[in-house]
Automatic annotation (TrEMBL):
<keyword id="KW-0520">NAD</keyword>
<keyword id="KW-0560">Oxidoreductase</keyword>
<feature type="binding site">
    <location>
        <begin position="13"/>
        <end position="16"/>
    </location>
    <ligand>
        <name>NAD(+)</name>
    </ligand>
</feature>
<dbReference type="GO" id="GO:0008774">
    <property type="term" value="F:acetaldehyde dehydrogenase (acetylating) activity"/>
</dbReference>
<dbReference type="Pfam" id="PF09290">
    <property type="entry name" value="AcetDehyd-dimer"/>
</dbReference>
<comment type="similarity">
    <text>Belongs to the acetaldehyde dehydrogenase family.</text>
</comment>
<dbReference type="InterPro" id="IPR015426">
    <property type="entry name" value="Acetylaldehyde_DH_C"/>
</dbReference>
<dbReference type="InterPro" id="IPR003361">
    <property type="entry name" value="Acetaldehyde_dehydrogenase"/>
</dbReference>
<keyword id="KW-0058">Aromatic hydrocarbons catabolism</keyword>
<dbReference type="GO" id="GO:0051287">
    <property type="term" value="F:NAD binding"/>
</dbReference>
<dbReference type="InterPro" id="IPR036291">
    <property type="entry name" value="NAD(P)-bd_dom_sf"/>
</dbReference>
<feature type="active site" description="Acyl-thioester intermediate">
    <location>
        <position position="128"/>
    </location>
</feature>
<protein>
    <recommendedName>
        <fullName>Acetaldehyde dehydrogenase</fullName>
        <ecNumber>1.2.1.10</ecNumber>
    </recommendedName>
</protein>
<feature type="domain" description="Acetaldehyde dehydrogenase C-terminal">
    <location>
        <begin position="128"/>
        <end position="265"/>
    </location>
</feature>
<feature type="binding site">
    <location>
        <position position="270"/>
    </location>
    <ligand>
        <name>NAD(+)</name>
    </ligand>
</feature>
Length: 291
């Protein structure tokens, strides 16, 4: 059966917007009807024009001027900008997928609460670190609910951290911390991010630490592997670089994320995981609509 694709608008023409555009283009359920930013000279705008995508330099105004141009809106701008965009898009009745760490809408990590997210008008894709680690923290707490503290150290290549990422460092760490606590139920969490300037560029690594006594290690290893396998279905480059390991009262898990190379290099797994999660949500929205 031939289906008409759901039309999507993308606000923000930086690296994350471009990676998202290429993922939407190869989707069987989605199409990009407007790619809009502010800088007419941006690489994103130029590339989108080259591949035949309609573009605008009027940012959200392009959607305001033509409300029927799209049904889904991806916002890849910044946390502060999304706080302005969200009420406007709500009035327009759009299904909004926020890829900034704004925490304006309902947090969504597809492997955990995809169905719940579809019932919200505005969903927030948390952060790359939150997408990578919150599901593992939840799995760990289901086995050991007595854990009091979990810490995440996310290391990404400085080359994959654009101006948007750098402008949102504070929001990133706070939103990631909030997501770990929210999804896992751990009383206290902390999130750190390291921009590594190494050459060649490193892939994204997320290391989770948990203070614990007498862990059920075999059960943890099995559960974590199951969760990782589910994430890998929509983030193919998601890999357990270090399975759960226990030493001196501390449990350690490390995840590596390699990008799919849709638009960005493979080392940009930090952007790939959040764009992949966002497309997963949008495609499920489209499936539910057809059903």
């Amino acid at each position: 059966m031939n289906r008409k694709k759901i039309q999507c608008g993308i606000i923000g023409t930086g690296n994350i917007g471009m990676d998202l555009l290429f993922k939407v283009r190869r989707s069987e359920l989605l199409a990009c009807s407007i790619f809009t930013g502010r800088d007419p000279e941006s690489k994103g705008i130029q590339k989108a024009k080259e591949i035949g995508i309609r573009t605008s330099v009027n940012s959200i105004q392009a959607i305001l001027d033509e409300p029927d141009i799209c049904e889904i809106v991806f916002d890849t701008t910044s946390a502060k900008a999304h706080a302005i965009h969200a009420p406007i898009l709500k009035k327009l009745g759009k299904f909004v997928i926020d890829l900034t760490p704004s925490r304006f809408g309902k947090m969504c990590v597809p492997v955990i609460d995809l169905e719940d997210g579809l019932h919200s008008e505005n969903i927030n894709m948390v952060t790359c670190g939150g997408q990578a680690i919150a599901p593992l923290a939840k799995a760990l707490m289901e086995i050991h609910p007595e854990i009091e503290y979990i810490e995440l150290v996310a290391a990404i290549s400085s080359k994959s951290a654009g101006s948007g990422t750098r402008a949102n460092i504070d929001e990133y760490t706070q939103t990631t911390k909030d997501a770990i606590e929210y999804y896992s139920g751990v009383p206290r969490a902390k999130a750190l991010i390291i921009l590594n300037p190494a050459e060649p560029p490193i892939r994204m690594h997320n290391t989770m630490y948990a203070e614990i006594t007498n862990p059920k290690l075999e059960e943890i290893i099995r559960k974590v592997a199951e969760v990782a396998a589910h994430i890998k279905k929509y983030v193919p480059g998601y890999t357990l670089a270090l399975e759960p390991t226990y030493e001196n009262g501390r449990l350690t898990i490390m995840v590596e994320v390699e990008g799919q190379g849709d638009y960005l290099p493979a080392y940009s797994g930090n952007l790939d995981i959040i764009t992949s999660a966002a497309v997963r949500v949008a495609e499920e929205y489209a499936r539910k609509k057809y059903e």
